Amino acid sequence: MLVDPPIDKLVETVGNKYALVGLLGKRARMLMDKRHDYLEQEGVNPVSLAAREVCEGKVEGVEEG
Q1: How far is residue 60's CA from residue 11's CA, in Å, rounded to a whole number?
Q2: Mind listing the pLDDT tens digit for each residue in 11-64?
Q3: Alpha helices, DSSP H only, in 1-65?
Q4: Whole-prediction pTM value?
Q5: Cβ within 8 Å of residue 40, ≥6 positions away
Q6: Going by C-beta distance under 8 Å and a sequence separation of 6 or more, which residues neighbour residue 27?
Q7: Cα Rg for the chain, rounded, in angstroms?
Q8: Rounded Cα distance, 11 and 39, in Å
Q9: How far apart are CA 12 and CA 6, in angstroms?
C-alpha cells in the first residue's frame, strides 16, 4: 500500500485520480526499462519511486480541460 506520499496529495498535485494512475503507470514502466538495475539494487518499488517523483515535482502530468 502506498502511504508516503499520501494519495490525496498526489491526486491534488495531478488533478484527478485517473490521470494519476496513468501518470504513475507510465513513469513506473519507464523506470523499469531504464533504471531496472538501480531498482533491484536498492530494493525500491518502481511505483513508489514514481509517486515520490510526482510529489516532489520532478514529473508532471498534463491536465486536460
Answers
A1: 12
A2: 999 999 999 999 999 999 999 999 989 899 999 999 999 999 999 999 876 555
A3: 7-14, 17-34, 36-42, 46-56
A4: 0.83
A5: none
A6: 50, 53, 54, 59
A7: 12
A8: 24
A9: 10
